[in-house]
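Intended use. Records like the one below are meant for learning the mapping from a protein sequence to its folded structure. Do not use them to infer anything beyond what is encoded.
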Amino acid sequence: MRNIVLNNVRPFVDGKIAEPAKICLVDGAWASSAPEGTPEFDAKGAVALPALFGLGLDFKEPLRDDIYTFKDGVEAMRRGGFYGGLYESSANAIDDSLKLAAIQQISAKCGLSFAFLGAFSMGYQCKDLAEMVELSEGGVVGFGDGNHNCSRSRFLRLAMEYGSMTGKRFFFMPLDDSLRHHGLVHEGSFADTLGMKGIPRIAETMEAFRILEMARFLKVPVHLKQVSCGETLKLIERARTQGVDVTCDVDIYHLLLDDSCLFDLDSHCNVPMPFRSVEDREALWQGLESGTVNAISVNHDPVLRQDKEVNFEDAVPGAVSLEVALPAIWKPLCTRLSAARAVELLSTAPAQLAGIEPATLSQGGQASLVLLDPDAETEVVSSMFAGKTRNCPLLGKKLPSRILGTYINGNWNEG
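Structure written out for the chain above:
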């Protein structure tokens, strides 16, 4: 449905939620009126927010399209109110111009706004440099590690020196594999009680320090993905005082959960960056308040059901989030921060990091919005998710808000 009239809707305009009004959406754009006979929807005071931009999207296609496909991912984005995202697949390294052209061709058919991270090493193996200059000329917005740790510092230096020729930012998930040492959860009292191998904070902080020092030495801009503990934020603050151009994000689930969730041994809580202590979760919230954290990421990482419906220790790490991100985090963000800051962290700032034009609610322009009832609950059930995967840590839980509909790329989808 390309045309829709939204009645009794409160639009987010100029940093605040306005009084109820009527919004006309016609052929993908804002309009002062709609053609006769256009369907109408009573929003009943729900909030119209600019559509979101997702950091950390992985749709697995083509090498693992048995798990998930680009089509599945786009459907998940529409359901969750995302008009675009930064794409980097751990299974499909974009390490040459042909692979970049192929994924750009697939994404172009979707009508959404995608940006791509090129791999700085071939196949994320950190043995041979990728064609970074060609990738930059082809349109990548930066270079990533595919969430694979680069343990060889000399290779890291060579990659960042070569990549610095492009002026692009490097994106890293700071987690040292040797210190992780097959750990599954945060190293702390809950891991001890459950008798599980722990991942110490220094597995993150030492890797973050190495990356930040390399960036300082080479004067290369970097981004730290999925920061999970307070000490890393302190390192980022210190690096900034030294002139390092460093940005960072925190994952939505790390703002909502801590390692106490492990007591249920729910394999859906097995994620690459472990849920850490309640003190660490509080430090991440304080990082949002202080501005140390630049954006909130979604890190949509599908895993087959048979790889999650096993013992915690045997589960494949990863979580999907696109369909539940907004209703899960909106009310906590507004309570702790503000609606304006929530929109910045979920939409504006992620888009700017990816070099994509942010979505706005303005007359005459292209329309991309999500209609949210901030007071209606959402029960997270399997049918909410696109594709064949259901690996969500919030499965079976009730969320404090509900998406009533989305208008993405000129299509109205009622929730």
